[in-house]
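Bench notes, afternoon.
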Amino acid sequence: MTSFFKTALAAAALAASFHAAAAPAATAPEFTGIDKWLNSEPLTMRQLRGKVVLIDFWTYTCINCVRTLPHVKSWYDKYKDQGLVVVGVHTPEYPFERSTDNVKTAIKRFAITYPVAQDNQYATWNAYNNRYWPAVYLINKKGQVVYQHFGEGEYKETEAKIRSLLAEADSAP
């Protein structure tokens, strides 16, 4: 029985190690079905080509999302002048989270200054085949999804990936 658990743990660890780079880079889906843009005019992935983009799927009552916000906000503050664009995609878990006023209140409470797309119908969520809160997707300057992380943690690894993507040579949009 112990050998079974060791094998299962090893398989889980191996699977987890591949989450960031196992698949070839896919073109990042467009923002779609967004009900409202907060802190920004509407954005498109096409207009963000040539930038490194961090997409953060979150919802304001998710404690795991709340715990990641200081890191996401720090990356935005630290790297926005170097070409990082952060977009929070607020996708509600509960019906009351669909209220734009509630989302605005949360943005103010958490002092979020980067753009937030309100994805009440899960259209962008589904375009990314996302299933988790929180979820971070990094898109390179060519518009390809090159990294993803689900849940809390891996903050150093994520920041290192942001820095390496920012350091890559600019590509033509």
